Amino acid sequence: MMELKVLVDNNTIIDRYYLGEPGVSYLITEGDTKVLFDVGYSDVFIQNARKMNESLMDVNYVVISHGHNDHTGGLVPLVKLYSEARAEGINCQSPTVVAHPEAFSYKEYSGDEIGSVLDGKKIGKYFDTSLTNKPLWITDKLVFLGEIERTNDFENLDPIGRCEHVDTIFDDYVKDDSALVYKSPQGLVIITGCSHAGICNIIEYAKKVCGDDRVLDVIGGFHLLEPSKVQSEGTLNYFKEQDINNIHPCHCTSLEYKIKLSNSANVMDVGVGLSLNYQ
Length: 279
Prior knowledge:
alpha/beta; 7-stranded mixed sheet; 23% helix; 28% strand; globular
């Protein structure tokens, strides 16, 4: 069984006094393994976890979907949280950070830095790391996809700013964008950050890695704020051809595209405080 709790999203569940911000963070529990998937932009994920009576002292893995600051900014307050706990003699795990090897490279957009404040070298000083572009099974049922194969002709056509690789600045097609997948008895639960690789590419690669064409749910950002006509038509046609019961598009998915996607699947609401359970 897997439980997913939303710690950070642009929206919050009504009638609960959680904090929202334009970012992503999910607390995932699968068996005895606890995973923090992304950490939002600030310390909001820590504040919301406390309000949910969730401890972050027993997290085994911190999985980073990609290196943008709305998904990695919380690493600095997370380091502070663990450092203070150890200084005060509070027992806490030393989680392993799982990410693509380029997730902590320098990234910029229109001249502004949009990447992780902590680079790969700093990350390695505070955490054990498993930086891989290959699929990595965290548990028998939970897999980090690594670098997503980009096989269609309508997604990820334009760069998102620029990034540094081996001391050279290139157009950034966010090769570090990845996802988690949970293999449930009823099909795959796909968990994304922003889906810069393309939500359809991610779903197809998840099927390939897991050897299962059944998709039970997709939760996360779908990168559908103001897509091009090519991406819009390709994505909507793809979902029309799929047999996906529920989807939870959030974060970087506009209301317009939630409505359009609802013609092909049940679009479920997402906000901080939401708890989802899968067998």
